[in-house]
UniProtKB/TrEMBL annotation:
Domain named Major facilitator superfamily (MFS) profile: residues: 1-231
Gene that encodes it: LOC103522880
PANTHER family listed in its UniProt record: MAJOR FACILITATOR SUPERFAMILY (MFS) PROFILE DOMAIN-CONTAINING PROTEIN, PTHR48021
One MF annotation (Gene Ontology) recorded for this entry: transmembrane transporter activity
Classification via PROSITE patterns: MFS
Signal sequence, start to end: none
Protein name per the record: Facilitated trehalose transporter Tret1-like
């Protein structure tokens, strides 16, 4: 959306005039809350569950787009972009976790790839709106999309693995049966994790974080995304 906003703000008849530095800030500020977002997303998903987290994350999207749509000064565009960036990064991690946990292992790869396709389609539609509409109206239309998402997520069950990890075994089996669309399957119960009653100490957390099982995937992902972004 930053491309369309900057293009229209650069017009002589624009009600908001920006400098080159301000335009650069509008484009880049959306990435500022990355570190905060991932830490917050992990906490919300663990404490409140995947489904409720995805419902909560609709709020910053709606709020951010409304602020952008009603902006009359540059600083309010900054605020709106920051909030939508926060929501986008939070939703990115929570959405992947939810999809991975609720889908059948046979189709999990397909649905995770479909998420990328949906994201690219969203970018295309956003650019299309910005091409034919004033950027304020385009932002207003974008504010409606999270509301649709809220309705769909509201009527879906919580992640079965998360329910099982919190001790809600019966609810986890019921959610799995609803998601798989069939009768009770012994395989469903075998896929659910065992509830954890022991809380990790700081020393145990440190041991897990410094273990090869944690560091190797982290390094691979870091290198992959670094090359992807800078290539």
């Amino acid at each position: 959306m930053s491309t369309e906003i900057l293009a229209q703000l650069g017009n002589a008849n624009s009600t908001i005039h920006i400098t080159t530095e301000q335009g650069s800030t509008i484009a880049s500020i959306v990435t500022l809350p990355i570190i905060i977002s991932f830490a917050l997303s992990s906490y919300l998903m663990n404490v409140y569950g995947r489904r409720l987290t995805n419902l909560i994350l609709c709020a910053p999207f709606v709020l951010g787009w409304i602020i952008i749509s009603l902006s009359t000064q540059v600083w309010s565009i900054y605020v709106g972009r920051f909030i939508t960036g926060l929501g986008a990064i939070l939703a990115s991690s929570s959405g992947i976790v939810y999809i991975a946990e609720v889908t059948d292992p046979k189709y999990r790869g397909f649905f995770l790839a479909l998420r990328s396709l949906a994201g690219c389609s969203g970018f295309f539609v956003t650019h299309l709106l910005g091409t034919f509409l004033h950027w304020k109206w385009a932002a207003a239309v974008c504010a409606l999309v999270p509301l649709v998402s809220f309705v769909f997520v509201y009527f879906t069950p919580e992640s079965p693995p998360w329910l099982a990890s919190k001790g809600f075994t019966v609810e986890a089996e019921q959610a799995s049966q609803w998601l798989r669309g069939g009768e009770a399957d012994p395989q469903i119960k075998s896929e659910l994790p065992v509830p954890h009653t022991h809380k990790l100490t700081i020393r145990e957390w440190k041991k897990h974080i410094l273990s090869p099982e944690f560091l190797k995937p982290l390094a691979i992902l870091f290198v992959f995304f670094f090359i992807q972004r800078f290539s």
